[in-house]
Design a protein that fits this description.
ERM, two-stranded antiparallel ribbon, 1 helix, Ubiquitin-like_domsf, FERM_N, 15% helix, actin binding, 4 strands, Moesin, isoform CRA_d, alpha+beta
């Protein structure tokens, strides 16, 4: 069984935790978030993270989420 990775996503209303596979893409994570919160206006939103220099950066939906792990500022979430 593949190892899962814990990802925390913060919205204006909630803090969500997801267990994802190492090969999960940004689109797959975004789809999970959208489904969980019941978001309809998906074209208006996306996912961001704070990099190691504390800059907010958009997650590319076609890339694997794990590729961003070395860039995420410790203690921060995907938003």
């Amino acid at each position: 069984m593949p190892k899962t990775i814990s990802v925390r996503v913060t919205t204006m209303d909630a803090e969500l935790e997801f267990a994802i596979q190492p090969n999960t893409t940004g689109k797959q994570l975004f789809d999970q978030v959208v489904k969980t919160i019941g978001l309809r206006e998906v074209w208006f939103f996306g996912l961001q993270y704070q990099d190691t220099k504390a800059f907010s950066t958009w997650l590319k939906l076609n890339k694997k989420v794990i590729t961003y792990y070395s860039e995420i500022l410790p203690g921060n979430n995907v938003c």
